[in-house]
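Predict the holo structure. Ligand: inosinic acid.
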Amino acid sequence: MEHISYKGLEFEPYIKNEEIQKEVKRVASEITRDCGNEKPLFLCVLNGAFIFAADLFRSVDFESEISFIRYKSYSGMSSTGEVKEVLGLTESIEGRTVIIVEDIVDTGLTATQLIESLKTKNPKQIKLATLLFKPDSSTCGLVPDYVCFNIPSKFIIGYGLDLDGLARNLPDIYILSKDNK
Ligand code: IMP
């Protein structure tokens, strides 16, 4: 993996796709253990989680469904602190197990707001699965149920994560380089 540059910023290799796939399989087996008999609804939070959700959903072999919701809180490399729902949930989740699939839990604002809004629809239970978790950035005390990788509070791109819409198609994950001025 080579250093890459987006919008004048340097990024260095961080997590290879093979490692990601290994952790996705681990999380899939934890979800199978906990929710395999629940016919859960996986709820992918667009845009960033679409690649993780596709790999995770294909790694479980019990009866389940997937749906999509869109939230937006980031502009450039930082959270705006304001979370907007751009595409809502259409299915009923009453009495169901819902597994939220996030790309990254940073401040935790997006996931906390989503969980609060889902709770008003009377699900049986809500679980949160995330590819990446920045424990030091969390401002809500939220701890995801399933985490592929805990990472430091640095900006990362690739495997669905973007810098202003770019870099989502990189198979591996890259981290903002220390060399940026
Ligand atoms: P939170 O509401 O602060 O937890 O942020 C959630 C959203 O911010 C994620 O779903 C991402 O879209 C975005 N985000 C947070 N950290 C990063 C990052 O390091 N790279 C790219 N997007 C990020």
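Residues 48, 73-74, 79, 102-110, 155-157, 161-162 surround inosinic acid (CB under 6 Å). The radius of gyration is 16 Å.
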